[in-house]
Design brief:
463 residues, 12 helices
Length: 463
């Protein structure tokens, strides 16, 4: 299925307004494999399919905008992480990336653990059958109610984030007659190469207790004195969307240094070290993520080397991939509503979603790619900005992209790599209805999170 270009004047296909040369892709109909889930392809009729189902049929059945999650790909990525780290390590899926009861069941079936950072995530995990001992609770300001629910449920670990929280968790555990396994989150002073808002290991931010100045060491002293706590390890997280392990190497060196201090001062070797998550995915063809096996090998070597140097037994390693598992497994499907050419600048292509279903472009200046998926086209490349329908000039889905010059109302566009954070951070701005999440596998599709309705909005509006 193809449509030829209309002779509508210059398309500025080669030059961005800022004057930087950007070569358009040689084939606008091609799909870059690294940014799409594994079962996505383009059929002989030009329509893109996922799990063997054409997107045109999915749009007709489920509407747009909608997130389509490739279940087979999700499960395969879970297995890849599990197998890479093996039985002597723990892989915790970071639920904040995207969580639903179906996802929890997949994680359980594929042998992964789960970390949560709110009562809502904990409730979802337990309701879907994740064993409590395979759950970790994170958060920089856990309420007493959240802590109580976690301790009562028997979660496998609570990650302590402040001096006040050390006491709070201990009091709850003692009141319930339990001894809660905990880790202490430390900030190691490593600045990952990422956006300021998602770099989490430098000292000037809200997470953790700093190694510099002795806060982390003091937290260990306090935790070891409290009967309600069983201190089992140290937790470190250096940021998000990271493509190399050099930051982890520095972080591991400093965390192992703390473990050595703990042994020397208290005569205790803590048995666990959690290096967090944050491994990057490909949002565009320029991104080059590492495979789980490569990551696992590098982290093991780093920790083993540092422990040997410190004279410590190698602790059990934990990692927390979230985006790295779910991010590439989903795309968001939109329908084009209007096409507006600004001569000498670019063409604005408006879709029926926007910042309410993907805030990341506005929040982090995140980059995405986009493709025409309801047909092929032999039209010339057109420099485009894909925007949403919200009352904000910053309502941008893809800032700069090449689309065929004949893109028109009614066409379907898909933005890949939207499995992480897009639905989790979705909103009702302008009273938009949050889109559904549809799982697709082996020629079948089913809703796992339904589309919101106007009745849902009104039900909460009790005025």
């Amino acid at each position: 299925m193809s449509r030829s270009a209309h002779p509508a004047g210059p398309r500025y296909a080669d030059v961005l307004p800022e004057g930087h040369y950007v070569a358009p892709p040689s084939d606008l109909n091609a799909l870059e494999p690294k940014v799409w889930s594994r079962t996505v392809g383009r059929g002989e009729d030009g329509v893109v399919t996922v799990g063997g189902i054409p997107v045109t049929r999915l749009a007709e059945e489920f509407g747009t905008p909608a997130y389509f999650l490739d279940e087979s790909d999700f499960r395969a990525r879970c297995r890849a992480w599990r197998d890479a780290f093996g039985a002597d390590a723990d892989v915790f899926y970071a639920g904040k990336a995207f969580l639903s009861r179906a996802v929890v069941r997949w994680l359980h079936e594929e042998g992964l653990n789960l970390d949560v950072c709110s009562a809502g995530e904990l409730t979802t995990a337990l309701d879907a059958g994740m064993p409590a001992e395979r759950i970790a609770l994170h958060g920089n300001n856990k309420s007493t109610e959240e802590i109580t629910r976690a301790v009562e449920a028997g979660v496998g670990r609570i990650v302590l984030d402040s001096f006040q929280e050390i006491v709070r968790v201990a009091h709850v555990a003692e009141r319930l007659g339990k001894r809660q396994r905990v880790q202490i989150r430390v900030t190691v002073g490593v600045e990952a190469h990422t956006h300021e808002f998602i770099a989490t290991a430098h000292e000037d931010q809200k997470f953790g207790l700093a190694l510099a100045g002795g806060q982390a060491a003091e937290a260990v002293r306090r935790a070891l004195k409290l009967d309600g706590l069983e201190l089992v390890g140290i937790h470190s997280h250096i940021g998000s969307q990271i493509f190399d392990t050099s930051g982890f190497e520095v972080a591991a060196h400093r965390v192992v240094g703390l473990l050595k201090e703990v042994r020397d001062e208290h005569g205790v070797e803590l048995p666990e070290i959690d290096l967090g998550g944050g491994l990057g995915i490909a949002y565009t063809a320029d991104d080059d993520p590492r495979e789980p096996q490569e990551i696992a090998t590098a982290l093991r070597e780093i920790v083993t080397r540092e422990c040997a140097s410190a004279g410590l037994a190698v602790p059990r390693i934990s990692v927390e991939p979230g985006r790295a598992i779910v991010g590439p497994t989903a795309f968001t499907l939109y329908e084009v509503g209007t096409v507006k050419e600004l001569p000498g600048l670019r063409t604005y292509v408006s879709v029926d979603g926007g910042m309410s279903d993907n805030i990341r472009t506005a929040l982090y200046d995140a980059e995405y790619t986009v493709a025409l998926v309801s047909r092929t086209s032999d039209a010339a490349p057109m420099l485009s900005r894909v925007v949403g329908k919200h009352c904000e000039s910053g309502d941008i889905v893809v800032r700069d992209a090449f689309l065929p010059a004949d893109v028109a109302p009614g066409d379907l566009l898909a933005v890949p790599a939207t499995g992480a954070y897009c639905r989790s951070m979705a909103s009702n701005y302008n009273h938009a209805l949050r889109p559904p999440v549809v799982a697709v596998a082996d020629g079948a599709a089913r809703v796992i999170v339904r589309r919101e309705t106007e009745e849902d909005l009104l039900r909460l509006d009790v005025g």
